[in-house]
Amino acid sequence: MSDIYQPPPRTWRKKFADALQGVGQGAWGQSSFAVHCAAATVVVLFASALQLNHYDWGLLLLCIAMVMSAELFNSAVELLAREVDRRHNPTVGKALDIASGAVLVAALGAACVGSLVLLPPLYRWIGAFAP
C-alpha cells in the first residue's frame, strides 16, 4: 500500500479557482509583490499616455507577467522552506537565495526592456514641449 497522497481529480473550473486563490495567497501581504505592482502600474500609465503600439504593449505586459510570476514562485519557495525545516539550514538558505536571484534577474530584464520601449517615445514627447 502506498503512503503517497493522491489528490482527487479536479474540474477545470476548480483548477482555475485554485490558481486564482494561489495568486491571492502569493500576493497578499508580500511587500515585494506590492512594489512590483506599483512599478507595473507606473509602466501601464506611461504606456497609455505615450500611446504605444500593440507590439510594445505586448513586450511590456510580458515583462510584467514574468516578474509577477517570478515573485509568486519565490513566495512559494519561501513558504515551502519554512515548512520543510524551521531551523537554520544552509541548503534551504541557498535555495531561497536562488529564488530571490531569479526575481532580481526577471526585474532587471524587465527594466531593460521597459527602458528600450518607453524611453524613445518619452524623449519625443518631452521634445515636443521644448522651445
What does this structure look like?
The protein has 131 residues and is mostly helical. The protein has a domain at 52-131: Helix Hairpins (Orthogonal Bundle), CATH 1.10.287. It is built from 4 helices and no strands. It has helices at residues 12-27, 31-49, 54-84, 90-127. The longest helix has 38 residues, at 90-127. It starts with 11 loop residues before the first helix and ends with a helix. The chain crosses the membrane at residues 58-81, 102-123. Its cofactor is Mg(2+). The active site is at residue 71. Belongs to the bacterial diacylglycerol kinase family.
Short description:
One of its GO terms (molecular function) is metal ion binding. The protein is an all-alpha fold and 131 residues long.
Q: Give the structural class.
A: mainly alpha
- Helix-strand pattern: HHHH
> Main sheet, how many strands, which sense, barrel?
none
Bin the strand percentage.
under 5%
Notable traits:
Helix Hairpins; 0% strand; lipid biosynthesis; 131 residues; 4 helices; lipid metabolism; elongated; phospholipid metabolism; mainly alpha; transferase
Question: What is the strand and helix layout of this fold?
Answer:
Blueprint: H1 12-27, H2 31-49, H3 54-84, H4 90-127
Helix pairs in contact: 2-3, 3-4
